[in-house]
Write a structure and sequence with these properties.
single chain, mainly alpha, Four Helix Bundle (Hemerythrin (Met), subunit A), 3 helices, transmembrane helix, membrane, transmembrane
Length: about 100
């Protein structure tokens, strides 16, 4: 793959990840609001609530990393931010799935 194809592929990947991370951040925040409204007295709900809050935070940080990676003109910075965004996304998604298991 030459440099221009690699940049195009990375940009497309980041744009798709940006949409998904933004959506999942919104879902995590909504789930936290619902858990807090419906049942916030049990320890399980509190644990799931905390896990979803962390997931939402990581998804939001991921969106910032992606946005900056898309806007920078430095390829090295963009690659580093892409790795950061991937790591944040994986951590957030893992936390969201774990919170789902706790709730079930």
């Amino acid at each position: 793959m030459d440099r221009s194809e690699n940049r195009t592929w990375m940009r497309e990947e980041l744009l798709q990840l940006l949409a998904v991370a933004g959506t999942l951040a919104g879902l995590s925040i909504t789930a936290v609001a619902l858990l807090h409204t419906v049942d916030h007295a049990t320890a399980t709900a509190t644990i799931a609530d905390d896990m979803l809050v962390l997931s939402a935070l990581f998804f939001l940080l991921c969106t910032y990393a992606i946005f900056i990676a898309l806007r920078t003109r430095h390829a090295r910075v963009a690659r580093t931010l892409e790795r950061v965004a991937d790591t944040l996304f994986l951590l957030a998604l893992t936390g969201m799935v774990a919170a789902g298991f706790v709730m079930v």
